[in-house]
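Q: Could you fold this chain for me?
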Amino acid sequence: MHLVAMAAGFALILMGLFAALTHRNILRMIVGFTLANTGVHVVLVSVGYMPGRAAPILDDAVPVAEAAARIIDPVPQALVLTAIVIGLGITALMLAYAYRLFRARGSLDIADYTELKW
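A: Sure. Below is the predicted structure, expressed as structure tokens.
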């Protein structure tokens, strides 16, 4: 099952990058980046999955002596939670920039911003 999740994550990454690179509308590009970000989260969670193991809670079900062999490493889940928060902040910042660009120019098409090139 984790291979299906990993394949779906890679598909989300590819769809997001395709959307970000092919569309000219800034909002569609932001949605593409967000979709790719979600794909990265799915891939990270599927990499951290180990079949047949339990949650990292030490109680009567998992003795301390057998914990290393019977529980899942919680670090990938913690990294994904942190990445979700960072991704939300980056998406909010991109949307704020898009809103500011729309207020300044009245358009979200990247062809209208050619004078901003180096």
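A (continued): The mean pLDDT is 88.
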